[in-house]
Specification:
Largest sheet: 7 strands, parallel
Oligomer: single chain
Structural class: alpha/beta
Helix content: 40-55%
Radius of gyration: 26 Å
Number of helices: 28
Length: about 775
Amino acid sequence: MTSKPAAAAARATVYGYPRQGPNRELKKAIEGYWKGRVDAEALRSTATDLRAANWRQLADAGIHEVPTGDFSYYDHVLDTTVMVGAIPERHRAAVEADALAGYFAMARGTQDVAPLEMTKWFDTNYHYLVPELGPDTDFTANSAKQVAELKEALALGLTARPVLVGPVTYLLLAKPAPSVPADFEPLTLLDRLLPVYAEVLADLRAAGAEWVQLDEPAFVQDRTPAELNAVARAYRDLGALTDRPKLLVASYFDRLGEALPVLAKAPVEGLALDFTEGAAANLEALAAVGGLPGKRLVAGVVDGRNIWINDLSKSLSTLGTLLGLADRVDVSASCSLLHVPLNAAVERDIEPQILRWLAFAKQKTAEIVTLAKGLAQGTGAITAELAANRADLASRAGSPITRDPIVRARAEAVTEADARRSQPYAERSAAQRAHLGLPLLPTTTIGSFPQTGELRAARADLRAGRTDTAGYEERIKAEIQEVISFQEKTGIDVLVHGEAERNDMVQYFAEQLTGYLATQHGWVQSYGTRYVRPPILAGDISRPEPMTVRWTTYAQSLTSRPVKGMLTGPVTMLAWSFVRDDQPLADTARQVALALRDEVGDLEEAGTSVIQVDEPALRETLPLRTADHAAYLSWATEAFRLTTAGVRPATQIHTHMCYAEFGDIVQAIDDLDADVISLEAARSHMQVARELAAHGYPREAGPGVYDIHSPRVPSATEVADLLRTGLKAIPAERLWVNPDCGLKTRGWPETRASLENLVAAARTIRGELPAS
């Protein structure tokens, strides 16, 4: 028996698409522009070609309405800042002199001007540039980018829908400018911002837009009555405009909650909702408000954030339920496909049967089109697709790679004592101070050092068979020797080996753990031109043999100063992978933690006295709804402690976090029970130091004093000023001096200069401290 066709033909659409191109052409063009090898016109031409190729691919696949405006040279929130004219004062001259160069100056900074702060986009590993606003912000409309890209798509004969960050979410993502009191609320600028959006909407209508999508994902988070009132007011005013396209207000990443009734009755023509995260809650809430009579509903039933194939039958059931709740139901992914790789079909190193379990952006597009066809024409029209899908789902569920009885038995045997250090921090700290003999304000780095062209070439030669393992390892030894020698000459106190052997801080470990799959072409944008290849966590996790001991031990043999062992923590191993969706995250985290615990033990036995377990994703993975926080933080902090708690008291455990709003999780940071934590702080002007102090954080901390995501070299005076600010919150005996993050993406000249200034600043501040 097949379902009946829908009364109104369902259409297929997406909210956004990967920007980089099949061979990361955009990354290469932008970095060429930065280095002067590619001029602005050539960069624009590359971008134009990539947009056209994306749209044609979507249309050829059967997408009825392609998105425009989602393409970006760096970040779509930064594009919105340009669109509304909210250029910080320090960047205005650069933008006026050269719009493109000024745009990148806002993103990356220059030697003389600091960039915008960067942080995580909700609970993803994508980073956005934080708008800086104040009472004097003067918004002005600049719709040139949005109009031009719409016209490009229309010229190809396509139906196109511009996608903009919504006005309320834009203001909620913003922060007070550095010169503005910290208690300034950007949302108070809404009435000033709405006329600018009205002007942009009018420009897009004049350019041929029938629909415009306004993204408001901030409303899947808990919001105050004042914030809910703001969204009601915003869409009352925008909906009342006569010179505008139809408005589709989109949310994603979780359930819409208390904002749903507000938007359901707003004078807009459509809503887009996520029916993968919080699906049941959105369905229930939509029914409770009486549905969306007379309106369009875009149903995000294909997971836009993970890479597993869709359960087509389940999604069709959800879509069938939705048919009675809106005038028109269209099919989409749950969010922009920006968050997944481009095409699974190009992966040659994954077993063909396993490859059929995976859906990247191109495959998700096909799933969306299939679902729209089934909804419009009935399941009889997609019989073959449904049968193949059922077979692939069954293949994955029954595969032996997904379950290892030994791993599961070990995880089930974990006790509370396994995740608790043998001595309290005060006793451990005394033992560590005696063992390590470090000065006040000890200096260190986060882990990675620049990956040189020679090193990358050696890695490529190894993959291509142009060199053997022995030759490659000699190159690694040479890199480690250079890194250790530089740190000793510079005067850094706790050294790192530089991670020359690592391609990525998650992928490197994933390739050595059972249960993981690695891709060759699965690139996903993290920020700007930084792309990563998240591994795929497909089965139960174990560690067959040591992963880091050899190179850490080699580095330690070159120096008498302590060398940190460097590991990626269990939560980050999950967050920066495409994680399995067939068991609770807590279960998977415990398996990863036990594998890493074995590595920590082997490092300690090899003589490593400082071990850093990075957890930059701890805040990133925090659920968007407060009601879900406690359960997540309980298993996440337990996983970290399970990784690290087996060491002796004199072994110093470090952790690291970067580019997130740490104030939300200070108690969880405390609960990790790490001896030392290093955190991003340079762009946020030591905000995290104040947050730790307000909490009464009792352990050692290194708020970053060198922004490594910018090419500029901070002066010793600048670093010293940041340290003085840090000392107002953290006493000298507990304050470390370090960069914000690892140095892998930086070049050696700027790295040398910056770290020399960092050490000089630490010495200056030590000289200012009162004698003990």
